[in-house]
Write a structure and sequence with these properties.
D-amino Acid Aminotransferase, Chain A, domain 2; 2 domains; nine-stranded mixed beta sheet; eight-stranded antiparallel beta sheet; 7 helices
């Protein structure tokens, strides 16, 4: 099918947003192009973050959830990949807010800052403190926390990557080849998700989310040293379970068979949010329905994310408050870019 010049087909049936953010500038979506030969090796060293924004209809505000925690993790990933900080995490943070404001989102969104070596450097070549480019995209992504049902899972035959192979605590694109093998195996075998063990046979996480089990009133998750991503969502859930539900929480090694006898199993992550697992390797978890702890955590998490729990207000960053009310997205983008150019000119003068 022929497309009109300068237009891109909508992804997943949804129209593209008006703007993205590219290394300090808000750019119209259709103009953010590179030559096809530039993309081949880009993903090998790229790191990224996934951040959710939650829309509060009652407050007419979009809240970026745990934005500062995500920026801290992004900075750590950049350090481990020896990326030069010509664009700082603080600038990326500001870019996230500028992009969401320019696109005038009034709905739940998913935001992805991507940091990469832009010169097409082959993946086998050593890279030390080279400058990077940063791309931030955002798209509508409705919360699923109020949906019914749950997931089926299996234990994958693939092992989790180890810290001395490809550090799992880094949120790197290359690590997700491990996840793709795991999730493809699950899909071929008729499961929704797969849970991965490390080389010691201990539970780590699912293909793209962390795992929490509930046994005898205690919420338990594998430690970071087991080979998991340092999950911001899991830390938030532990805080909510401890302070909101009065539960005991713990980090420790988790055996495979504990998944089969747990009272509840749940997966969590920024995109995943909080999802109950109803069976593992066709062993029914609990009574085969979403458990009471999972349900309470889903409800509390959504209340916090929508700004309805003041005690956790420091987890939220408002997007639209105090930003040129009444101007449209194009005007906001032009104002932001103009102010930045003026600042650069003044600095050079």
């Amino acid at each position: 099918m022929t497309q009109s010049k300068g237009k891109q087909a909508p992804r997943n049936g949804q129209p593209n947003p008006h703007f993205l953010w590219r290394s300090g500038q808000i750019v119209p979506w259709e103009q953010a192009t590179v030559h096809v030969t530039s993309v081949g090796w880009t993903a090998v060293g790229a790191v990224f973050e996934g951040i959710r924004g939650y829309w509060s209809a009652s407050r007419r505000e979009l809240f970026a959830f745990q934005l500062d925690a995500h920026m801290t993790r992004l900075a750590r990933s950049m350090k481990l990949m020896r990326m030069a900080t010509n664009i700082t995490a603080a600038q990326v943070r500001q870019g996230v807010l500028e992009l969401l404001s320019a696109n005038e989102f009034r709905e739940d969104v998913y935001v992805q800052p991507l940091v990469y070596f832009a010169e097409g450097i082959p993946g086998y070549v050593g890279v030390v403190e080279r400058p990077v480019d940063v791309l931030i995209t955002a798209r509508p992504s409705p919360s699923t926390l109020e949906e019914d049902g749950g997931l089926t899972a299996c234990v994958s035959s693939w092992a989790r990557i180890a810290d001395n192979v490809m550090p799992p605590r880094v949120k790197a694109l290359a690590n997700y080849q491990n996840s793709r093998l795991v999730s493809t195996e699950a899909r071929v075998n008729g499961y929704d998700q797969a849970i991965v063990l490390n080389r010691e046979g201990k539970v780590t996480e699912a293909a793209s989310s962390c795992i929490v089990i509930v046994r005898d009133g205690v919420a338990t998750s594998p430690p970071w040293s087991a080979g998991t991503l340092e999950s911001i969502t899991r830390e938030a859930l532990f805080t909510l379970a401890r302070n909101g539900l009065g539960m005991r929480v713990e980090e420790r090694d988790v055996d495979r068979t504990e998944l089969y006898i747990a009272d509840e199993v749940l997966l969590c992550g920024t995109l995943m949010e909080v999802k109950p697992v109803l069976s593992v390797d066709r062993y029914t978890v609990g009574d085969g329905r979403p458990g009471p702890v999972t349900r309470k955590l889903q409800e509390l998490y959504l209340r916090v994310a929508r700004g309805e729990a003041p005690a956790y207000g420091n987890w939220l960053t408002p997007v639209h408050r105090g930003r040129r009310a009444g101007s449209n997205g194009a005007e906001r983008a032009a104002a932001v870019n103009g102010a930045r150019r003026a600042g650069t000119t003044k600095a050079r003068a």
